[in-house]
Amino acid sequence: MEVKKKVGVFYLSFDTPTSVNQLYAPRAGGRGIRLSDAARIWKEYASLMVNQQWDGLPLDGHLCVTYRFFGTKMDFDNGLKILNDAMNTKVYYDDSQIIQAHVYMYRHEKDDPRVDVEIQTIG
Hints:
CATH superfamily: Holliday junction resolvase RusA
Radius of gyration: 15 Å
Strand order of the largest sheet: 1-6-4-5
CATH class: Alpha Beta
């Protein structure tokens, strides 16, 4: 049986991710850090969203990803870490495959806060 390679442009949409500023909390006893409750909850949500929106194997090869943030004041780089991690092993094997990225912020569009992700295979 031949496995067909996904090639093209793919779209996913998520609620606004937890900011990297809120990703980690101190461990009990003050030794190290752990994923915060807010980050853990958002990752579980994102995993469910990926399962609903993604059909098939992870993409391989090089990728170009476009992120469109709507209705948030967060710095875009603060939302990318947890968002990319949520798609690891499901949408693509590893976010190191992303060799080109574009980020657009639509801060004034507050009626439907979210981030739309467009992933394009480029090699």
